[in-house]
């Protein structure tokens, strides 16, 4: 089954917002086993929208439209879709009720404008999808027998991501899945401590030989994610198909695998390892300036392993807060193996934490020298009194270099926790 | 002149990467005064790509294609474009030389594969654009007189953002600008301390009355940006057209305006204010966990105003590091006005900084109670011994609530610095 995405709205068309919905929906559709050949973006213009929808219906079975379902007269997606399918709009009593309820929950009753009732209009014969997070319902319109787009489907979803994503996840995805003869199931194996090209080389034979399940790599900052996807009649059969591939990846990557769960992040895996070991961690950051502790504290419940963290940007702060010896800073400089080591060890001492990560480097754009170029970062890690320091040369801009340093810090800690096992 | 964007590549089509190039290019094209009605995404498939390019050339004057210029046989953008325009490819000596130079700079000489020379092939008559950051050149192909696409243009740009953006900025934008009878110039007025809807209401009359220059608002986290755009024969005339509008915004928003420079961020404006006042700042973060200091240290040269920062996640750390009185934590709790105040004041004291921002709150998803719901954040700010605390109720998820808290912290500091003037 061929699906196609149309994003409606001037803000996306003119680049005021990045089209993250399209990436989300495309990835989900691919996972559902739909073939995707085209995406398009069109503004709030009736003629161009009609043209775009017609063309999509000609070449695809399912056209997913996002945006343009708001209450203003600029919002035309529903009107144009109904016209293309030759359907009238009528006021749906249940939707009207839900809009009223939504407003009652959020606002005083007086605030509903006449515009809002436009959102209760739905094309005849459409499946109406309730919106838990807004007033515009989702809609599924199917071409009637004997009409131009017989059996073709248009799926209309509100544009705001906090409405679009939950609606797709809970209601549209199961619907699309039901249209497919076989289900598509997938799982994720997330790998760190190894570069993208080496990781791919290690499984090149599996990727070449793939039919069902298939294996696809995705490079992330400091990580590689492998998605295994199987077509099968049910979840159990899919799991049986995927299990040998998961096992093969485990055989090849071993401890490089930090999770086989889609939703687990690297920081979550690290926090979980610390929890299991009843250990606490702290950080000592210079150029990353708090981004590393910020990432650890992304994890809900991080308070069980992290009590405090230190940003020591000046040399004076490194000395006073972390007790980095003055002589080390003078002799080797703030960006040095010795300083990174002293920061990591000092952070453990002053906080009483069992482990620490320290980062000191030259993020750029200025401050580099021939001996210590921009991108040079020392990452120190202490686990139960043992310290390792890694010298990294990143080649990104200030922001990218700091992101890489944060990822590498988490990975180094993970490696040392594994060794200390 | 009507322009249209085509993004080529399976990774974008299937949602493995978000199409940030499209947003960047669309925004830039709009600023250059080009009309944009369509964007599309197509995979590395010859027939579908040809179809998409032909359709775009039929309805637009300039078609900008990104991606598909790599060295592999999947990369087809150049080949298909040449075919559509009825042009042959030939090897461009200068491009071949540049590819060789690029490799010499990056790698040992041995590493060029035969594939790479594919990138030296260019369509006859094309303008070749040098790529400072990669091997694939940019290309501008124009339809010959008497052919199907006479006078239409296809502009081919490499897909990686670090190649696409500098190439567009330095070479494509001036080229496109030269095609236009009048230039398009713009400037930005960035506003904080005021909500989006109120800010828009305050300039509704200016937006309604707009012709040249025009005024458009963009909501950012905690900020509103107003872009003023003028059409004019040269930059000086444009500035004369825009000046009264800028002045009018200054009259209406006054100190809410933190910059009129496109490239200046809120954190940069705050760091600059501190520099001017010869003041230093520190932070004391709980739920934001280092993101606030991380954002301040985004600013190159932040070391002149920030020496250290504190992440005190546990109560014990708040007491020991920031000297928050034990009784306050017991009586009012960690998420309270009193604790935020003590954190802000304590941070100044322990670090000797002239100013501080403290954040303590419940970012979610758990930990909320009826009295202290998820999203409740107290932000304290001390400037030269005077402290203010603000109670905020954010309604996003954990990540969004933390981002809002960081933005609000910076804005509160800015407000107090202005007051202390």
TrEMBL record, chains A, B:
<dbReference type="InterPro" id="IPR036653">
    <property type="entry name" value="CinA-like_C"/>
</dbReference>
<dbReference type="InterPro" id="IPR036425">
    <property type="entry name" value="MoaB/Mog-like_dom_sf"/>
</dbReference>
<protein>
    <recommendedName>
        <fullName>Putative competence-damage inducible protein</fullName>
    </recommendedName>
</protein>
<dbReference type="InterPro" id="IPR008135">
    <property type="entry name" value="Competence-induced_CinA"/>
</dbReference>
<comment type="similarity">
    <text>Belongs to the CinA family.</text>
</comment>
<dbReference type="InterPro" id="IPR050101">
    <property type="entry name" value="CinA"/>
</dbReference>
<dbReference type="InterPro" id="IPR008136">
    <property type="entry name" value="CinA_C"/>
</dbReference>
<dbReference type="Pfam" id="PF00994">
    <property type="entry name" value="MoCF_biosynth"/>
</dbReference>
<feature type="domain" description="MoaB/Mog">
    <location>
        <begin position="4"/>
        <end position="178"/>
    </location>
</feature>
<dbReference type="InterPro" id="IPR041424">
    <property type="entry name" value="CinA_KH"/>
</dbReference>
<dbReference type="Pfam" id="PF18146">
    <property type="entry name" value="CinA_KH"/>
</dbReference>
<dbReference type="InterPro" id="IPR001453">
    <property type="entry name" value="MoaB/Mog_dom"/>
</dbReference>
<dbReference type="Pfam" id="PF02464">
    <property type="entry name" value="CinA"/>
</dbReference>
